[in-house]
C-alpha cells in the first residue's frame, strides 16, 4: 500500500495552506506549461490519478469532459473534493494507485499531477494506464524531477561567488527517499529520468513531450521568488500517447 501521508493532520494542514491548494491550478507554477500539453478534453472519458482536492477534475469538466474518474488514497482529500464539487460528471473514489485496477479500453485521457513519485511499482501502474486507454489516447503527468528529489540537503549551499549549489546524493541509486516536507518521514520513490522514460516506452507508450520545467522571463517578473527554479528543475512534465 502506498504511504498515505496526506491524511496526517500536520501534513494536511500544511498542504491545505499552500498556494496551489488555495488558488487551485492558477496557483501552480507549472500549470501554464501543463495546460499546453493537454488535448481537447471535450467529450473525453478521463481518469485523474491522485486527484487531491479535485482542481483538475473540475477543470476537465469545465472543458466539456464526458466523465472524470478522480482517484486519491487520501480520505481527507476526497472528502474536500466532494464538498467542493456539485457536478455529477465527476466521480471521486478512494484508491491506492499501487494496486490500481481499471477496466480495459475505458478512458480517452489519463492525467496525474505530482503523485506518481510516491508510487513504488511505477511499471505496474503505467501498464495499468496503458491497458485502460483507447489507442491514440494521451497520458499527461507531472512528477518531482529526480534531480530535485536527490539532493543531500533540502536547502542549497553557495559557492565562493554566491551561486547556488544543489549537491546530489547517489542519483544513480534508485529507490525510496525519506524527507521531512510538511511532516516528518515522507517517503518518495526516486527514479532516474531514463528509468521513467524507458518504463513508459516498455509499456507501449510513445513519448510526445518531455519538459524539465523552469519559469520564463514573464513568470519570473511576476514571481521573483521562482528564481531558484533556474538552478535545478523541480518539476518533470511528460506527455505520452498510447
UniProtKB/TrEMBL annotation:
CDD domains: AdoMet_MTases. GO terms for biological process: methylation. Keywords: Methyltransferase, S-adenosyl-L-methionine, Transferase. Residues 47-141 form the Methyltransferase type domain. InterPro entries: Methyltransf_11 (IPR013216), SAM-dependent_MTases_sf (IPR029063). GO terms for molecular function: S-adenosylmethionine-dependent methyltransferase activity. It holds the Pfam family Methyltransf_11. The keyword Cell cycle does not apply. PANTHER family: METHYLTRANSFERASE, UBIQUINONE BIOSYNTHESIS O-METHYLTRANSFERASE, MITOCHONDRIAL. This is Class I SAM-dependent methyltransferase. It comes from Rhizobium leguminosarum.
Amino acid at each position: 500500500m502506498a504511504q498515505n501521508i496526506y491524511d496526517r493532520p500536520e501534513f494536511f494542514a500544511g498542504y491545505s495552506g499552500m498556494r496551489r491548494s488555495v488558488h487551485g491550478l492558477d496557483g501552480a507554477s507549472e500549470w501554464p506549461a501543463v495546460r499546453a500539453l493537454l488535448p481537447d478534453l471535450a467529450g473525453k472519458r478521463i481518469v485523474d490519478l491522485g486527484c487531491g482536492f479535485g482542481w483538475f477534475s473540475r477543470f476537465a469538466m469545465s472543458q466539456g469532459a464526458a466523465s472524470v474518474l478522480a482517484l486519491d488514497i487520501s480520505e481527507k482529500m476526497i472528502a474536500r473534493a466532494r464538498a467542493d464539487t456539485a457536478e455529477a460528471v465527476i466521480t471521486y473514489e478512494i484508491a491506492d494507485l499501487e494496486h490500481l485496477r481499471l477496466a480495459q479500453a475505458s478512458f480517452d485521457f489519463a492525467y496525474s499531477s505530482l503523485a506518481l513519485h510516491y508510487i513504488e511499482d511505477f511499471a505496474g501502474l503505467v501498464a495499468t494506464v496503458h491497458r485502460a486507454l483507447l489507442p491514440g489516447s494521451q497520458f499527461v503527468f507531472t512528477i518531482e524531477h529526480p534531480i530535485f528529489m536527490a539532493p543531500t540537503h533540502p536547502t542549497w549551499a553557495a559557492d565562493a561567488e554566491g551561486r547556488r549549489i544543489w549537491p546530489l546524493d547517489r542519483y544513480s541509486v534508485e529507490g525510496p527517499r525519506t524527507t521531512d516536507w510538511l511532516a516528518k518521514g515522507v517517503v518518495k520513490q526516486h527514479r532516474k529520468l531514463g528509468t521513467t522514460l524507458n518504463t513508459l516506452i516498455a509499456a507501449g507508450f510513445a513519448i510526445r513531450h518531455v519538459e524539465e520545467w523552469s519559469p520564463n522571463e514573464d513568470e519570473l517578473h511576476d514571481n521573483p521568488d521562482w528564481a531558484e527554479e533556474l538552478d535545478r528543475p523541480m518539476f518533470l512534465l511528460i506527455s505520452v500517447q498510447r
